[in-house]
Amino acid sequence: MEWSNDEVIEFLQLYEGYPQIWNLRHPSHKNRNLVHDAWKEIENKLSVKTDITEIKKKKILLWLLIENF
């Protein structure tokens, strides 16, 4: 599924707001339930209707793009 630039920016802004997902030093990072809840919140807030699995795949693809940029 292709996302527009606006949708990618929306995702990145939401993702940034949940440091328990990406910040290894965040106190809740190792709590799988809290991390899962954060992913669910992103899924519910995102204007693109998709599921957590697809969102995580998109995150990996974006990460690879940034790494190779």
TrEMBL record:
Ranges of residues in domain MADF: 10-69
Any matching Pfam family: MADF_DNA_bdg
InterPro entries in the record: MADF-dom
Protein name, UniProt field: MADF domain-containing protein
Protein species of origin: Macrosiphum euphorbiae
